[in-house]
Design a protein that fits this description.
This protein has two domains: about 140 residues, Aspartate Aminotransferase, domain 1, CATH 3.90.1150.10; about 230 residues, Aspartate Aminotransferase, domain 2. The protein is built from 15 helices and 13 strands. The strands form four sheets. A seven-stranded mixed β-sheet has the order 2-10-9-8-7-3-4, with helices on both faces. It has a two-stranded parallel ribbon with strand order 1-12. Helix 6 runs parallel beside helix 7. The longest helix is centred in the C-terminal third of the chain and has 33 residues. The termini are far apart. Bound molecules: (2S)-2-hydroxybutanedioic acid (LMR). (2S)-2-hydroxybutanedioic acid (LMR) binds next to loops. It is an enzyme of class 2 (transferase). This is Aminotransferase. Keywords: Aminotransferase, Pyridoxal phosphate, Transferase. One of its GO terms (molecular function) is pyridoxal phosphate binding.
Length: about 400
């Protein structure tokens, strides 16, 4: 049977994770997969999460099924967190999904049913899983210009020109905030222009919001999504709790549909539930229940927000420290853009030869497009990384 298959390509993020684990050098610097790490290199469980888990442990009375849409209180709280008051709730439907990736997969499958001939546009570059996922859902995939590695900034004019040429048979995947892999994000004014273009052309927005709260703040990071909601009457959004609640392995995300009217919302929702039932029947509850408890409880919510804020500000400090350390050593502003980027990632614009040399000579691991995860850097590692980058790029 399996002789009919050839070997599938390995996901480069997980391949790098295995390569790093196999490197015995004690001073290795892991800038790979997108998990938050504290100064000691650990990915801690947030205290609000621990408390919510203790509450579940003490009070839960059953493990019976929850239903195809998953935890309803969770989904309502996630809609509010992402959309705020930007859209009337009678046009919104949401389902819990296994992680942001699961949420995205459910929505891609739904969109394929709704518009089988659409072209799915992703940014150039984008998260390495976007293209394979869209292709697996059966879409033709194309890329719109996004990032200029020479300056570390968004190629906004080129992006807008590409969007202006689209039409109703185009679906545009937009990173809600904290662009992965580049770290370069749209300004509020640029978001407004993107939304105006899509409103004019009829292109359909699919917003991937995996890092809300990791950029400029929970509401600030939702600016683009809410601008879409205020102007465009139908779109979808995949959100994730992996990063902002630090519950990566629990796999918690949410698929959100906004439709033109309540009747269309009901139809789209019935299709979404049909997709879920036919794939994994219903999502696992534990992680979603943690998030529901936190978001519905004032004290726990405040505790979580403070922890999230501490992570967010530390990442910004890391960015500044790395940009400063490189500038001091190189006497150039070539990497100053790192301090302007937001979220976990920055794309440094290094070539593969330099990336390979950093790996072999300095035990510095980044993705092969030069994406680095800024969150894992304690001060001593920042200084060593700056030495290595300046040494390798001289
Ligand atoms: C990443 O980009 O490193 C994260 O989103 C983890 C993943 O699933 O790829």
């Amino acid at each position: 049977m399996f002789e009919t298959l050839s070997k599938a390509p390995q996901d480069k993020i997980f391949a790098l994770m295995a390569e790093i684990a196999a490197d015995a050098r004690p001073n290795k610097i892991d800038l790979g997969i997108g998990v938050y790490k504290d100064d000691a290199g650990n990915t801690p469980i947030m205290s609000a999460v621990k408390k919510a888990e203790e509450r579940i442990f003490a009070t839960a009375k059953t493990k019976t099924y929850v239903g195809v849409a998953g935890n309803k209180g969770f989904a309502s709280a996630m809609v509010k967190l992402a959309l705020g008051d930007s859209v009337p709730l009678d046009r919104v439907r949401a389902a819990q999904a296994p992680g942001g990736t699961g949420a995205l997969w459910v929505l891609l499958t739904l969109l394929k049913r709704a518009k089988p001939d659409a072209t799915l546009w992703i940014s150039d570059p984008s998260w390495p899983n976007h293209k394979p996922m869209a292709e697996q859902a059966g879409f033709k995939v194309a890329a719109y210009p996004y990032f200029d590695p020479a300056t570390g900034t968004v190629r906004f004019d080129d992006m807008l020109a590409a969007l202006d040429k689209m039409g109703p048979s185009d679906i545009v995947l937009l990173h809600g905030c904290c662009h992965n892999p580049t770290g370069a994000n749209l300004t509020e004014d640029q978001w407004d222009q993107v939304v105006a273009s899509m409103k004019k052309t009829g292109a359909f927005p699919l917003v991937d919001m995996a890092y809300q709260g990791f950029g400029d703040g929970l509401d600030e990071d939702a600016y683009g999504l809410r601008a879409v909601a205020a102007q465009i009457d139908e779109f979808v959004c995949a959100t994730s709790c992996s990063k902002n609640f630090g519950i990566y392995r629990e796999r918690v995300g949410c698929s959100i549909i906004v439709a033109k009217d309540p009747a269309q919302a009901d139809i789209a929702n019935s299709q979404m539930l049909n997709v879920i039932r036919g794939a994994y029947s219903q999502p696992p509850d534990h992680g979603a229940e943690i998030v529901r408890i936190i978001l519905e409880d004032d004290a726990l919510r405040a505790e979580w927000k403070a922890e999230l804020e501490a992570m967010r500000t530390r990442m910004i400090e890391n960015r500044k420290a790395l940009a400063d350390a490189i500038r001091t050593r190189s006497n150039s502003s070539d990497f100053d853009f790192v301090a302007e980027h937001r979220g976990m990632f920055s794309l440094l614009g290094l070539d593969l030869e330099t990336i390979t040399r950093l790996k072999s000579e300095n035990a510095v691991y980044m993705l092969d497009d030069s994406r680095i995860n800024i969150a894992g850097l304690a001060d001593e590692r920042i200084q060593r990384l700056a030495d290595a980058i300046v040494g390798a790029t001289r």
